[in-house]
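Q: What would this chain look like folded?
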Amino acid sequence: MTATAAPIAAQKHETLDQAVAEVRSHRDEWLEVSIRERIALLEEMINTFSDVAEEWTQASCEGEGIPAQESLGGEEWLVGPYLVLRNLRLLRQALSDILETGRPRIPGPVKTRPDGQVVAQVFPASFFDRLLYSGVTAEIWMEPGVTRENLADTQAIAYRQPVQNGIVALVLGAGNVSSIGPTDALYKFFVENQVVVYKMHPLNAYLGPMIERGFGPLVERGFLRVVYGGAAEGAYLCEHHGIDEIHITGSHHTVEAIVFGPGEDGRKRREQRRPRLEKRITAELGNVSPLIVVPGPWTDGDIAYQAENIASSLTNNAGFNCNATRVLILHEGWNQRRELLAALRKTLKSAPTRPAYYPGAEDRFDAFLERHGEMETFGRRTDGNLPWGFIPGLDPEAEDEICFRTEAFCGLTGETELPAKDAAEFLDRAVEFANEKLWGTLNITLIVHPASLWDASTRSAFGRAIANLRYGTVAINHWAGVNFGMMTTSWGAFPGHDLYDIESGFGVVHNTLMFAKPQKSVLRAPFKTFPKPPWFLSHGNARNLGETLTDFETEPSVFKLPRIFWHALRS
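A: My prediction, written as structure tokens:
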């Protein structure tokens, strides 16, 4: 690890106290910042964050042990500066809409389903989205009780129902994806109207000085402080009298320890419903992310494409994503099932192994291997690198299956097969399996060939599946992780969890149209896209494309499009 990505020491309690006090002293001042001023702050931060984008990407690559100048470096451009800048720009647009009409503009149609549920199309959000993400759409499905008539009343509530006293939020940064913490903080500022103490995760604390520079306009006015430390410092801040609310992206074990305390005493408190900490908490946690393949008439090219689609949803970020595919669900009777699995194995075999940079990865990998000695591995296990792991033929009836109840959080996935008389019955069974047997409600992906939907019963079952899946993101044909980057969509667990059964958490982030009652986001994409998506593991030009897209987000222009298309076509 070079000096750029060098660790930063934990801070003493006195330093943390000072940071909290400084932010708290400005919490009411933030409430007085006008919409015009906030727009100006966002415009300034687009420039200041753009200035640190290259350094940010370089440091992230070094910290994760990947070559910044090769195609793999594009991953860090895309999941870091690109997403933060997109978030800043869309928030600026939302505030401009509020200034003009009182609420963010919904870019697509608003519809009411036969059951009364309201659906708002939120992507594409612009002419440029239509060009760059051809054929991709996304909707937010609202919670029951929201109607077309009152939908506008659920938007931008913080700007229509101002509070009397400012709120200090503690944002506990994530260590796996560099844009998570910054976009979580932006949500607190511009959607929930709160000021922020941001604690860096020890794993990527080297980004802290860049956040301070990129978000300099907020730091300079005392609305944001970046602090450093590990679990002990995080626990101290959570219980700090100057912190009003907490947001965390991470593990449900961490949230339970914060709320109830660690160890046996904490477990008893949770069972007795006696929280030790009673502050408001929002959390985006893990998921045993499923991927359902609807049987259909696939060509050899379709099989190769979708095998890479599935593999890429695992290998991205070395598998350290809460939305990485963990259980592949197939129809036992599909006559092309074996061909798809063979192509998936071939793709994983061709994927270079990557440093297992996230703490505990080897122990988690070994825990699955101990339960499943038949695990297939691809690539060599070397010092610091893990192979890709694949566990086929999981018993869907197993009650204590580790692959169904535990998020691996490394480069490992499993596969199970469900018997059914036809595709429609398979879909109904797959939905029930995902909802009832798999842990978590964060995201799910479905892959369906358009010809499969020519059959009326399959088409009807597919519609039921989208409606009945209890996941915060339902993605069709694109990996569900893509929804994380759209920013106009919501990102978080399906509503219904509480502190006593937290699973994937509660509350949402991103959601730049500022809906108060989103139930889930539904992303729809073509069965195959051209050019090749930049997150596909075989994309040969992702680094240049990622940098070009990041530059585009600072100031979209038709004059920048030819360069984007040039790099996209050189995949």
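DSSP finds 21 helices and 21 strands in the chain.
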